């Protein structure tokens, strides 16, 4: 977009009268550079007057294009400071060029936002102007997990599900900034959520270290997701802490469930998992505890198993979106420790399920092994990223 220029009222340095110029319809800052340098006057030869030097802004009017940086250019002299504020008073950070002639914002202009530009030059001149970007024709939003200021287990990824499709994944990913208290190595990976929506997860190379503090700054305001996905019109942030190092080990072949904390086994109980050989079999691989749901109604129709059951189930711990839980299953007591004979879940006695429920935390990994399974937990079926090798996971980044 070309720059436009007009002269507007300048604010002269102290002791000098201000001069007035025409006010036109475009966004231009007029800065009068009237101070004298140590080497002599800056006046134009033969004119007897100090020069007028205009500062132009690349965006103008009431329907300026969003999604690009704001650039302020000085015709002559050097900029000292530029401030661009918009929305609810938030400022766009930026940098002055090496020659002092221009300033460019580090972030892009957001849609539907009124901005004020204020500039000062090194000779004391200053002025201001404004512009407004066109509103977004469509807005994209997202859902973040885990929740803000929560404490989660060592297997919990940062997970973002988008309301609308994300075509320009690289543009979005480069605005997602993860910081940790101990420089944890990790990577974003794009996948399809079980709901069918676009999703991106950030997982460490290995399980988190207990006590790690994690922050996500999703600086997305003004980012166009491309295609029919629409614009982001706000930033997002979340912070969470990693709790105790706990892993639940589920052995399908030996019908046992064990809880390990800080490398030591603290619980080992008999269980019965999904009936092998069909849709009722359990998943293998690493599933991450998604939620602790307490007492819930479980109906087989919701997971595609006809009218096999309709029960109120206690101590329910969700492991996948497809309906695999660990929970109390007193009706299956005859099979605990002997045979896998459930509709896909990991069932235990009331007492054992309640004890596990009390000790585990959302984000704890359940490592499920054994031959009696129907396959491996998929990446988008809950948090299945741990079933992808680190090398393969890194290739799922749009910036790899």
Please, could you describe this protein's structure?
This protein is mainly β and 400 residues long. Helix content is 5%, strand content 39%. It has helices at residues 169-173, 350-359, 390-394, and strands spanning 28-32, 52-57, 69-74, 79-86, 90-92, 94-96, 102-108, 114-121, 126-132, 142-145, 150-152, 158-162, 176-180, 186-192, 198-204, 213-218, 236-242, 246-251, 256-261, 264-270, 282-288, 291-299, 310-318, 325-328, 346-348, 365-369, 373-376. The strands form six sheets. The protein has a six-stranded mixed sheet, with no helix packed on it.
Range of strand content:
35-45%
* Shape verdict: elongated
Report the major sheet.
6 strands, mixed
CATH superfamily of the largest domain: L,D-transpeptidase catalytic domain-like
Strand order of the largest sheet: 20-19-18-26-21-27
- Percent helix range: under 10%
Task: State the low-pLDDT regions, or none.
Answer: 1-52
Oligomer: single chain
Q: What is CATH's topology name of the largest domain?
A: L,D-transpeptidase catalytic domain-like
Name of the top-level CATH class of the largest domain: Mainly Beta
Termini gap = 31 Å
CATH architecture of the largest domain: Beta Barrel
Supply the number of structural domains.
Answer: 3
Give helix and strand order, one letter per element, not per position: EEEEEEEEEEEEHEEEEEEEEEEEEEHEEH
Provide the gyration radius in Å: 30 Å
Helices and strands: which structural class? mainly beta
Please count the beta strands (DSSP E, at least 2 residues each): 27
């Amino acid at each position: 977009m070309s720059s436009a220029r007009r002269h507007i009222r300048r604010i002269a340095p102290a002791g000098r009268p201000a001069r007035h110029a025409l006010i036109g319809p475009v966004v231009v800052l007029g800065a009068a550079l009237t101070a004298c340098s140590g080497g002599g006057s800056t006046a134009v030869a033969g004119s007897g007057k100090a020069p007028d030097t205009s500062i132009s802004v690349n965006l103008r009017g009431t329907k300026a294009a969003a999604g690009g940086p704001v650039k302020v250019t000085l015709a002559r002299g050097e900029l000292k400071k530029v401030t661009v504020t918009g929305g609810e008073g938030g400022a766009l950070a930026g940098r002055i060029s090496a020659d002092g002639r221009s300033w460019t914002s580090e972030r892009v202009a957001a849609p539907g936002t009124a901005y004020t530009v204020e500039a000062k030059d090194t000779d004391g001149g200053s002025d201001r102007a404004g512009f407004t970007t066109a509103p977004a024709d469509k807005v994209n939003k997202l859902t973040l997990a885990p929740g803000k200021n929560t404490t989660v287990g060592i297997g919990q990824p940062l997970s973002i599900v988008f309301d609308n499709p994300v075509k320009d994944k690289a543009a979005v990913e480069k605005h997602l900034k993860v910081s940790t208290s101990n420089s944890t190595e990790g990577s974003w990976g794009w996948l399809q959520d079980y709901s069918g929506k676009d999703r991106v997860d950030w997982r460490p190379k290995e399980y988190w270290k207990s006590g790690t503090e994690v922050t996500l700054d999703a600086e997305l305001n003004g980012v166009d997701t491309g295609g029919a996905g629409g614009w982001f019109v706000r930033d997002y942030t979340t912070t969470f802490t990693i709790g105790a190092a706990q892993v639940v080990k589920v052995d399908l072949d030996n019908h046992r469930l064990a809880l390990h904390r800080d490398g030591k086994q603290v619980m080992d109980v008999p269980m019965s998992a999904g009936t092998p050989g069909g849709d009722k079999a359990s998943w293998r691989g690493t599933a991450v505890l998604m939620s602790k749901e307490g007492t819930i109604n479980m109906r087989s129709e919701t997971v595609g198993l006809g009218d096999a059951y309709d029960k109120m189930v206690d101590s329910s711990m969700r492991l996948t979106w497809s309906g695999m839980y660990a929970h109390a299953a007193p009706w299956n007591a005859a099979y605990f420790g002997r045979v896998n004979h459930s509709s896909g879940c990991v069932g235990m006695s009331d007492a054992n399920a309640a004890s596990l429920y009390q000790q585990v935390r959302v984000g704890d990994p359940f490592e499920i092994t054994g031959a009696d399974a129907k396959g491996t937990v998929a990446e988008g079926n809950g948090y299945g990223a741990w079933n992808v090798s680190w090398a393969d996971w890194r290739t799922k980044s749009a910036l790899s």
